[in-house]
Design goal:
Layout lengths: L1 H10 L1 H26 L6 H29 L7 E3 L1 H6 L2 H10 L3 E6 L6 E3 L1 H21 L6 E8 L5 E7 L27 H11 L3 E6 L5 E7 L6
Parallel strand pairs: 2-4
Antiparallel strand pairs: 1-3, 4-5, 5-7, 6-7
Helix pairs in contact: 1-6, 2-3, 2-5, 6-7
């Protein structure tokens, strides 16, 4: 399971690089501005201080990105705790959006408000979401779609539980594989292990939930994570 987590984080490396480039470029720009301002005969100290504050903020942003990755890749498991699924997904937004852009995919979030609280091991559920996002991006790369799209949605179920869906408009799952995709080592990708979906389903099941597949309409795939809430039914 830990090896799968590291593989997931590694596969998102291109998006991480893109995400880190933004604060680093901003730091370089503000540092250059400070140098230019201080070279003036009568430098405006207020402008220099404002640029230095921006440098500090961008450095903290870069550090936060790295810390999130370290949290995802760490070996030790944190105890389960009540969580807001929207907050759990929002923590991944920058990483997912950067990877989507790197693949030429439009990324959207549709997060329903006021969802029930769920009791989860945060990094494990984030690993599941990233696994499903990575699969969707790889499927879209193989499909012949002009406007590639990835959508992550949350909603409350009629039984007051929580549902997360990761949907794309790619080629979808071949009908012959539809009932085998959660079997270990079942994969259509030459370099894949075929363990991402089985491990993701195991993680969700250990949380008392379920991970299932359904075709997206009019085309594509939807993987749906169902997690029990901590609210009394």
């Amino acid at each position: 399971m830990h090896a799968s987590r590291l593989a997931t984080v590694g596969a998102m490396a291109s998006g991480v690089a893109h995400e880190l480039n933004q604060p680093l470029a901003a730091i370089a720009t503000y540092a250059h501005a400070c140098d230019r301002l201080l070279s003036l005969p009568n430098p405006e100290i207020g402008e220099v201080q404002a640029a230095l504050r921006e440098i500090s903020a961008q450095a903290l942003r870069a550090g936060d990105i790295i810390q999130k990755l370290r949290n995802l890749a760490r070996v030790e498991e944190s105890p389960r705790a009540p969580a807001d699924i929207n907050a759990v997904i929002t923590e991944l937004s920058d990483l997912i959006r950067s990877n989507a852009q790197a693949h030429g995919v439009r990324y959207r979030q549709e997060l329903a408000p006021n969802l029930p609280t769920i009791n989860i091991e945060r990094a494990q559920i984030q690993q599941v979401v990233l696994n499903l996002v990575r699969n969707a991006l790889e499927a879209l790369a193989l499909g012949r779609v002009d406007a590639r799209e990835l959508v992550v949605r949350t909603r409350a179920t009629p039984s007051a539980d929580v549902e997360v869906s990761i949907c794309d408009n790619g080629p979808g799952v071949d009908e012959q594989l539809r009932y085998r995709i959660f079997d270990p080592f079942c994969s259509t990708k030459p370099a894949a292990t075929g363990l991402g979906l089985p491990i993701s389903r195991t993680i969700v099941q250990t949380h008392g939930g379920a991970l299932d597949y359904r075709p997206n309409q009019p085309t594509g795939a939807c993987f749906v994570v169902h997690l029990p809430s901590t609210w009394p039914n």
